[in-house]
Amino acid sequence: MNPQVPNLKPREVVAAFQKAGWSVHRQRGSHLIMRKAGSLNLLVIPMHDRDVPKGTLRGIISDADLSVGEFIDLLGR
């Protein structure tokens, strides 16, 4: 069974991906772009005041080639 995606603020999402080797590349408006050496994918994280929507977060995790369980492990919860 897949673990449930937690409710997270954008800064928590960025911190978790930084632990996985992703770095901030640039920010345009309210969207932060992250990249990782050796990966062709870019991660686009909406930097709004509210939690990142669960479907959006699941898509970002997928773009990072991680499972939800691996992402939760990065959170250190």
Outline of this structure?
The protein has 77 residues and is of the alpha+beta class.
Please describe the topology of this protein.
Layout: H1 10-19, E1 23-28, E2 31-35, E3 42-46, H2 54-63, H3 68-75
Antiparallel strand pairs: 1-2, 2-3
Helix pairs in contact: 1-3
Structure overview:
The chain has 77 residues and is α+β, with helices and mostly antiparallel strands. It has one domain: Hypothetical protein (Metal Transport, Frataxin, Chain A, 2-Layer Sandwich). 36% of the residues lie in helices and 21% in strands. It contains 3 helices and 3 strands, in the order H-E-E-E-H-H. It has helices at residues 10-19, 54-63, 68-75, and strands at 23-28, 31-35, 42-46. A 3-stranded antiparallel sheet has the order 1-2-3. The radius of gyration is 12 Å and the shape is globular. The chain starts with 9 loop residues before the first helix and ends with a helix.
Oligomeric state of the chains in view:
single chain
The overall strand count is 3
The CATH fourth-level homologous superfamily: Hypothetical protein
Radius of gyration: 12 Å
The strands making up the biggest β-sheet line up spatially as 1-2-3
Overall spatial form: globular
Identify the CATH architecture. Answer: 2-Layer Sandwich
Q: Largest beta sheet, briefly?
A: 3 strands, antiparallel
**How many DSSP H or I helices?**
3
Q: Beta-sheet strand percentage?
A: 15-25%
CATH domain topology: Metal Transport, Frataxin, Chain A
Helix content: 25-40%
Top CATH class: Alpha Beta
Category by helix and strand content: alpha+beta
Count of structural domains = 1
How far apart are the first and last residues' alpha carbons, in Å? 19 Å
Q: Low-confidence parts lasting 5 or more residues at pLDDT below 50?
A: none
